[in-house]
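Ops channel
N.P.: pipeline sanity check, posting one input/output pair.
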């Protein structure tokens, strides 16, 4: 493959930078394995990553009911995922945040690792 094969997600990234440069900066990933996808991820131990995810979800007009929410790491990490089209690419949003200790389900119960 060549860099031209990644033109769709790279063009989408360029347009996102122009149109939404005021939004929180994500980790950006483009892969030869999924040449039509642009992945934007937000990692934070506080809930700031969730707020950033929500700002991007709103900006990209991804419906709230399209968000998948689950935990991983024995219920210690909340994960939000959603995807939507933008400039011909599939934009995948993912946010990770620590679950407050008081909100964690005991190991082996609902809300644990998935």
């Amino acid at each position: 493959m060549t860099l031209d094969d990644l033109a769709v997600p790279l063009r989408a990234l360029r347009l996102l930078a122009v149109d939404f440069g005021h939004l929180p900066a994500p980790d950006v990933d483009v892969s030869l394995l999924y040449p039509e996808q642009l992945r934007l991820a937000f990692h934070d131990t506080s809930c700031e990553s969730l707020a950033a995810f929500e700002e991007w979800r709103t900006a990209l007009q991804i419906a709230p009911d399209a968000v998948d929410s689950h935990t991983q790491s024995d219920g210690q990490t909340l994960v939000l995922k959603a995807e939507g089209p933008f400039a011909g690419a599939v934009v995948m949003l993912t946010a990770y945040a620590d679950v407050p200790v008081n909100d964690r389900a005991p190991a082996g119960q609902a809300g644990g690792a998935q």
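N.P.: looks fine end to end. The first helix runs from residue 7 to 19.
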